[in-house]
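Troubleshooting entry. Yesterday's outputs looked truncated, so today I'm pasting the complete records for two proteins to confirm everything comes through intact. If either block looks cut off, that's the bug. Protein one:
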Amino acid sequence: TYFLLASVSLAVGIMVQIFGDSDNIFSDNAFQFGMAFQAIFFSLGLGYRINLLQQEKLGAQEKALEVLEQKVQERTFEVVKQKEIVEDKQKEIIDSITYAKRLQEAILPPVELIKEHLPESFVLYLPKDIVAGDFYWFYSSSDLKSELLIIAACDCTGHGVPGAFMSLLGI
């Protein structure tokens, strides 16, 4: 509508200039007035159009942000769900390995047995992981003539679960 008014004002200015009374100041300058009104209406129309485009752009950005926020919430929910699954699996694995540690410690000779034969001895057993490939072994045998003591400190290849399997084979 602004652009239509601009064109009409110029056309009216031209018509008044051509067909108007030449003694009248308005008639003599009607073309300039028409051009001035045309510029004003074009400026108003352009401002209205720019404002309309900015509003459309803001609306599109808000809609895009809503979609993005929804996707972020969905992905966050998925990540939290996967994190819970991983934590549950990790707990199961650690519980299983901790139980394997109890089994591994059960097959190691008791430190008290070693101290019974060698009272000034000590055992330093510090596995790197929950279960280990390192182990110690003790054997004692006594007959009437002598006492036989065998102590072994062993380091199997690997640490953790693979090393623990190797230590079981070693024992």
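Protein two, checking that the full record survives here as well:
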Amino acid sequence: MKTIELLAYARPYLETNALMLLGLVCLLMVNRLVVRFRPAQAHLLPLGRALLIASLIFPIFASFVPEQVLLRPAVQVWSGMSHANSAPYALLSTVGQNTSAKVSPDGVTGLKIQNGMVFGSATLFIFGFLISLFRLTNRMRKLRSYLDSLPVIKKIGSVSILASGEGGVAFSAWFPGRAFVVLPSSLFMDPRGLRIVLRHEIQHHKQGDTRWVHFLAFVKAVFFWNPAIYAWGKLLSEVQEFACDEILIGRRNVSALAYGRCLLQAAESAVGSRVLLAGTTGMATSASGN
């Protein structure tokens, strides 16, 4: 494959990275306005997801559109029939016959170096993508194995409630055909807090957060070198947590004071505990205590 052909195939990928960064900047600006004027943040979640999906699919669709349709030349030149006896044509023919194209050794060496850099970058990208994909598959396998090892306490529709004997916080997970909510055993001593946490985790399933986390993990594997995708993941994770809070409190069947106390307990439990498994969502998304 020639270097030009390789760059043509890589163009949509590079454009996607640029649009991903642009969409992130737009979402951060909107988020700052939301935080300042304090409207409902639940509407920000679908907007963020739509911006990310648009940045992924737009370059792919644009690659199938001919460039003549997207970018028309500012000046168009129509050529007519050439006359061999005309003076300009004779002059150009003479110059073309007496001039030989020569490539300097430095030019050839520079072209080889450029080709080597392009193919070397492509090789590094493929190698990094395979490593990221292997790590993602391994993490999903460990998560599924861990979920299968936990006892099922109850089933609510298609959601299986599991009990974990370890400390830490509750979290949710999803695999095709099955949805899970894992609750620490210490939470069963507080029935009121148990109901709040259970509603919170089930709301993650209703919002599609547990499905979205798989999609986002795959996108991170494809764009593993781009810091913007990790910022996307962090921002969307925060927004979806606030969306859960607003929806549950807005129904007025959960006391805001009791809900805030439950969030505080989840944050305290998260400090010093292990980080949540990949492919999961939960009240405390990190173990830093923030």
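Both blocks look complete. Sanity check on protein two: The chain has nine helices and five strands.
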